[in-house]
């Protein structure tokens, strides 16, 4: 097991930032760690890296306890913090050679060259870090995290603040890295999860409220689906509410658009069509709208 967390807890004063969470990650998985700002994502990652000591519970990385065997655990981890601290007055190669000096690397110069090529810094290799865009600075951060070839990558908000082109590039890089490494990355960007993750973990107010494949969580969250119906002319839509399986009718756009929450699928949609025909309503649109990652996130992190 690449990462094993059991009842991990961290308290700051009277606030329990991480509240007895448990999860595991197998070799070669990409896990999205989601939650609103302040939910406990960064605190959890800092405990996994040994930067913060847990108040309770245990965490192991590649079989090594992060407290009792912290040095060996950290040897298995590559970490990119949210603020990506870099020495901006250093050249890229200079900085990465300095990083390589912290590890027992047989040929540090060769390894630095490999990292520059792997993360796509070839065209920028002769620049100072302070001259780079944020996207390229993130690549430098990934290069330092990968320098010692760790088994586990912990990436805290790795795509925050990037432009659309940089987002695509960093996502592709993470996807490639995930073929050989276990990756846990925190984000509050829903598209990241759909684009990259094998599983997602959702944390809210320090508690783990969901853990599973994205599609399964979408299905399990609610037994209802949404049907979108659009009419050519305005309609009151009251007849839709009488259909067995229709739980709620939301009338919009002056009666030309309806959102119907339904139980079931094909049969209910067939009944919706029949009712519209019987009422003399001309349908221009009728389709099933799947619940997205945003719906799952909002449902699980809203305050009751």
Question: Could you walk me through the main structural features you see in this protein, from its secondary elements to its overall organization?
Answer:
Helices cover 33% and strands 30% of the residues. The mean pLDDT is 87. It has helices at residues 41-49, 70-75, 92-100, 108-118, 134-146, 164-177, 190-196, 214-221, 266-279, 293-301; strands at 3-12, 15-25, 30-34, 56-61, 64-65, 77-80, 152-156, 182-187, 199-204, 207-212, 224-231, 246-252, 257-263, 283-289. With 304 residues, the chain is of the alpha/beta class. The strands form three sheets. Strands 6-7-8-3-9-10 form a six-stranded mixed sheet, sandwiched between helices. It has a four-stranded antiparallel sheet with strand order 2-1-4-5. The chain has a four-stranded antiparallel sheet with strand order 12-13-11-14, with helices on one face. Helix 3 (92-100) packs across helix 4 (108-118) and helix 4 (108-118) crosses helix 5 (134-146).
